[in-house]
Amino acid sequence: MIMDEICRKCNALCCRYYSFPIDMPETYEDFDQIRWYLTHEATSVYIDWDGQWFIRIDNRCRWLTDTPEGPRCSRYDERPTICRQFSPATCEYAQGHHECEEVFSTADDLDSYARRMLGAIAFDAARQASRKEDSGNED
Ligand code: SF4
Ligand code: SF4
């Protein structure tokens, strides 16, 4: 059961994805690793207001159940600690938004950002070198 009135209105947003912190990318290789995450469906990456990087996977919780009264947690008493700590007083729905510095929904979004951060010349050189290395492996 999801307790608060506001939770009923938001359709259990916080039970429909999970996210966790990842290291801030510093090199072309770091960015390329995150680019791989973003080639997957239902995956995004964001930088929170305090500069922490996160990966987010939009995938509903198996314990979320649809009832005539709306979505409910079917194992509410057993729900993980993170669910217990998630408060409708401070969650993204209650606040009306999720504070993010940047959101990357696609690999191309991230490429544009990486190019800005690393510099276009360094970025292009690193990409070219990585592809050359790759074609060398095929020999
Ligand atoms: S805690 Fe917030 S996001 Fe989660 S169900 Fe309640 S209102 Fe929605
Ligand atoms: S365990 Fe329950 S409260 Fe936690 S995400 Fe799943 S459905 Fe939501």
Helix count, DSSP H or I runs of 4 or more residues: 6
Residue stretches low in confidence (pLDDT < 50, at least 5 long) are: none
Helix content: 40-55%
Q: How big is the Rg?
A: 19 Å
What percentage of amino acids are in beta strands? 15-25%
How many strands, which pairing sense, and closed or not: the largest β-sheet? Answer: 4 strands, antiparallel
Written as H for each helix and E for each strand, in order along the chain, the element string is: HEHEEEEHHEHH
Structural class: alpha+beta
Gap between N and C termini = 58 Å
Number of domains: 1
Total E-strand runs: 6
Mean pLDDT: 89
What is the overall silhouette?
elongated
Order the strands across the largest sheet as they lie in space: 1-3-2-6
Molecules bound to protein: iron/sulfur cluster
Notable characteristics:
binds iron/sulfur cluster, 40% helix, alpha+beta, 4-stranded antiparallel sheet, two-stranded antiparallel sheet, 6 helices, 139 residues
Explain this structure:
The chain is built from 6 helices and 6 strands, in the order αβαββββααβαα. The protein is an alpha+beta fold. The protein has a 4-stranded antiparallel beta sheet. Strands 4-5 form a two-stranded antiparallel ribbon. Strand 2 (43-48) and strand 3 (53-57) form a beta hairpin. Helix 2 (28-38) packs antiparallel against helix 5 (107-118) and helix 5 (107-118) packs across helix 6. The model has no long low-confidence stretch (mean pLDDT 89).
